[in-house]
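Record 1 of the preview.
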Amino acid sequence: MKRSFFKLTTLLSLCLFLGQETITRAVDADGRTKIVLIAGRPSHGPGDHEFNAGVQLLYKCLQIQSNIAPTFCLNGWPQDVRVFNGADAVVLYMDGGGGHPVLQDDHLAFIGTLMKLGVGLACLHYAVEVPKDKGGPEFLDWIGGYYENRWSTNPHWVADIKSLPDHPITRGVKPFAVKDEWYYNIRFRPEMKGVTPILVAKPSDETRQGTNSSPRGPYSHIVAASGRDEVIAWAVERPDGGRGFGFTGGHNHINWANESFRRIVLNALLWVAKANVPPNGVLSLVTQTDMKANLDPKNK
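->
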């Protein structure tokens, strides 16, 4: 029977309030899963940190999935928080650190209440970085780890993904090698409790010197770990029933053209939203026109 796309939501027992707004955890009567993608404001030079273009590219890929109802917001925190009504997962692709949009106003508490409702959370690239004393404890809970300034490092290097674990997020993904600003030495939960490594690669000793990191290396603890494999993407299932995903790539917009790079993230977005990931993963076609679409008008 052809699936009806008429949307009817039913209010569950839990609601959250922010000012005058009421956000509800809802059930979609047609069975589709709602994924809310939030893009940060423009930053860096052309082709880097293209959050608005990247989110719209992921949205385009998700739109063709019959079981997914994606929506997106551009240029930072949504002005109308009702966009989160009925969300099964929230995706953050934005600048992080002390200026992270999640840390402004009451947003951290807002996201925290969504997490208590079992909403999934995926953080891409810079969005995994928060200060250890504000956001750090929450991110350990919500996605299992975060980038900690001067503990983690952010060099540009080629991550050679030689093998992949058996997990719904890796379905249909083939080994790949991509140059990006792959963060590593992430601050994970103690003993990686509940954290499943998804992408693992071995940085070279030259990379560990941090000559192109910010702040510049070398950091003694990074250099001392020479030869160690590093987790650069991971997944977690939370005690509250929600799921989390951290992905440290995504600095270079061009990398979304890589099918395996893109599929890992698309699979993860379905997984954190508790939607079925197809046996061969999320199939998507991205053209050169798609890659050039929606780029921010940055100074050359």
